[in-house]
Amino acid sequence: MTLNVAIAGLGAIGLRLAKMIDSGAVEGTKLSAVSARDLARAEDRVSGLNDPPRVMTLRELPAHANVIVECAPASVFAEVARPAIEHGRIFMPLSVGALLEHMDLVDEAVHTGARIVVPTGALIGLDTVRAMAVGEITEVRLLTRKPPAGLQGAPYLIENDIDISNLTEAKRVFQGNARAAAKAFPANVNVAAALALAGIGPDKTEVEVWADPTVDRNHQTVTIRSDAGEATMTIANIPSAENPRTGRIVAQSVIAALRRMTAPITAGT
Q: Which of 181, 196, 201, 215 could form a cystine bridge with 207, CB 3.0-4.6 A?
């Protein structure tokens, strides 16, 4: 089976993902369509690909693809997600925090045959979290530590007048659950929502966010306790050159998820 993939959003992640799929990174996969806020610019961005996809509006994407990958701003999440679910497609969101506000889509997917597949993204160990969730998890914590540039402009910082522009040492800027973290930092901590969905939910998953001028990578540390054991997992992601709010590994995580859909053998839960 050939997977026709559509990408919604051609920012740092979406454009890199488009180039990777076009170059043959996923066997049995074709980039069939893309969409972005500026359609004319999107046409220009994909014109140099080996097999340029069609450029269209967000609502048109499901008619041209089996898989819809959402790489757009969280503000247009529903414009991408609802048509994909209504058409029974595989929907792969990167704005996972926005998904927490639209969980009715899960019920809709049951009726339409759609699937919502959340990539691991910039996190580590979701396979371990899912396995532990089969039993009983008693605690999940996420500590996010980013260079200040990776958090600048977050709604929570603006609303609470938190200045991180001239820090000389690490500063904790948020503490709460994953649901609150996703609202506070919609472009920065989608990992919190992914972790929550894999484990004990957004209201029980605890999150801390730190702005740290001493680091040059995005650090994510997950601590989990369950009846199957305990685990502490840390990943230090290199930020994207185009967008320091996200890591280079995010696009690679989507490629890995697509490969699982077409590969004759896979490893990991």
A: 181
Distance CA 219, CA 16 (A): 22
Rounded to an integer, the average pLDDT of 104-124 is 96
Measured CA to CA, the distance from residue 257 to residue 142 in angstroms comes to 22
Q: Which of 130, 141, 99 is nearest to 116 (CA)?
A: 99
Contact 119, 95 (CB under 8 A): no
For residue 170, the surrounding DSSP H or E stretch is none
pLDDT band (50, 70, 90) for residue 244: confident
Q: Which domains does the chain have, with CATH numbers?
A: 3-121+249-262 (3.40.50.720), 126-237 (3.30.360.10)
Q: Distances in Å between the alpha carbon of 51 and those of 22, 23, 26, 211, 214?
A: 7, 9, 14, 41, 43
* Contact (Cβ atoms closer than 8 angstroms) between residue 227 and residue 234: no
